[in-house]
Amino acid sequence: MSSTSNEYEVYWPRSPRQTQLKPLAKRLESFEGKTIVFVWDYVYRGDEVFALLEEGLKERYPSLCFVSWREFGNIHGTGPNERGVVGSFPKRFKELGVDAVIAGMAC
């Protein structure tokens, strides 16, 4: 700052964006014949909510299949291997033929 000016040099505290936005996955046109996996962090009543969701969706889409949250267990705070558990999702989802994921409750 000069002594005769009220101008200051400033710096924007935010760094340039490090990651680029990625397009969202294409939405399913229908649930008919699809497989949906439930994953849960055990924070809220997912066992109850998922049972109700499954029941309601099965009524509407009889050919819909589900993979239980029990397949993956607690996805939050799974110890030192939490990243490994969550990181294994793409491979496991492919192995299980998963078309969509419903994650809850406080993920």
Overview of the molecule:
With 107 residues, this protein is of the alpha/beta class. The chain has a domain at 35-104. The protein is 27% helix and 13% strand. It has three helices and three strands; from the N terminus they run βαβααβ. It has helices spanning 46-60, 82-87, 89-96, and strands spanning 35-40, 65-67, 100-104. It has a three-stranded parallel beta sheet with strand order 2-1-3, with helices on one face. α1 (46-60) links the parallel β1 (35-40) and β2 (65-67).
Sequence-ordered SSE layout with sheet pairings:
Blueprint: E1 35-40, H1 46-60, E2 65-67, H2 82-87, H3 89-96, E3 100-104
Parallel strand pairs: 1-2, 1-3
Subunit organisation of the chains: single chain
Q: Main beta sheet: strand number and arrangement?
A: 3 strands, parallel
Strand order of the largest sheet: 2-1-3
What is the helix content?
25-40%
Order of helices and strands: EHEHHE
Radius of gyration (Å): 22 Å
Low-confidence segments, ≥5 residues, pLDDT <50?
none
How much of the residues is beta strand, in percent?
5-15%
Shape: elongated
Q: Number of helical runs?
A: 3
- Per DSSP E runs of 2 or more residues, the count of β-strands stands at 3
State the end-to-end CA separation: 48 Å
Average pLDDT works out at 85
The secondary-structure class comes to alpha/beta
